[in-house]
Structure formats: C-alpha cells, structure tokens
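>> received
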Amino acid sequence: MLTIKEAIIVEGKYDKNKLSNLVDAVILTTDGFGIFNDAEKREVISRLAEKRGVIILTDSDSAGFLIRNRLKGMLPPERVKHAYIPDICGKERRKSAKSKEGLLGVEGMTGEILEKCLLLAGATAGERTDEPLTKADLFEMGLSGGENAAKKREALLKALELPARLSVNALLPVINALYTRAEIVDLLSRTYP
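>> returned
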C-alpha cells in the first residue's frame, strides 16, 4: 500500500472506497456538487491544503472538471496537485448504464492506473513517522462513547479551529492529517487536565 502525505480529494464515496484499498492517505469526498454549498467541508479542505497539501482526483467528465476548477479557485495553487485519470470508455460495474459522457470515473479505474496518476501528479510517497490515532484512542481520551464525550469533543474542535459538526468518524482522519498524536495528547492535557 502506498502512503501519501497529501490529502486526496475525490467526488464520491465509491471513489473513496476504491482509493482506500490502494493508498494510506486522508481521502475526502466533495459529495459531487455538494461541496459548492458546504462551507465547513471547504474549510476543512483549505486547512488540509495549508498543512499538508492536497491532490485533486476527479472524474474526467465535464462534472469532474467543474468540481476540480471550483476547488482550484479556492485553494492556493502552490498547495494543490492535480491527478488526472485517462479517458476510458465504459461503465462501472455497479451501474446499469454508461455515464452521460460514456467514460469511466475514478471508481472504474484499475489500481495500477490510479497509483500511476497519483505519482505523476507528484504525490509525496513515504512512511508515516508517528502512530496515527484510532477510534479506540478517541474513546480512551474521552472523545467518543462516554459521558461528556460530545462536550469534550466540541471543546477540542473549538481549540483546533475545526467545524463543530465534525462527527467522530470525520474527525479522526482530519486530526491525523493535521496533528501528531503527541500534539493532540498535549492539547487535551491542557484543555482537560
């Protein structure tokens, strides 16, 4: 599995699922055009771009380019890398018909093609130097599943200047991308001694 430093931005959950089997990286979805109306998600993407850079990997159809261009316009160009999939005619297995333009999307690409696209885009491959936080860690830290977990998580999100509505599942990859385990433990010890 390829470890990539940058966060990867894709259109939907099937794209994310495909990439999750190939790379160890933070992968966020735009939920198609949903990103246009989701200020909190745009803010998280901006923070990730600042901290570690992002790779935009959208479908090669007109909708994918519209989403890519919107993201491109909101992020600093020096913090964005663009990965492009080739135009391959066909349909994804889960769909009953081809897309409007008849092209495969990210989810329809082979793992080999996707890895090549990411590396050609300049993805920073390497090993993670610290141990990422897990759901079990968040539970042990009192950030999920326990009494006052929501209140403690809300205080942490505020201290980290992250959107208050981030669920535990959404919080985990974001804090792993933006902070080390030691930084989170230190912040929690200062917030909740």
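>> The chain has a mean pLDDT of 86.
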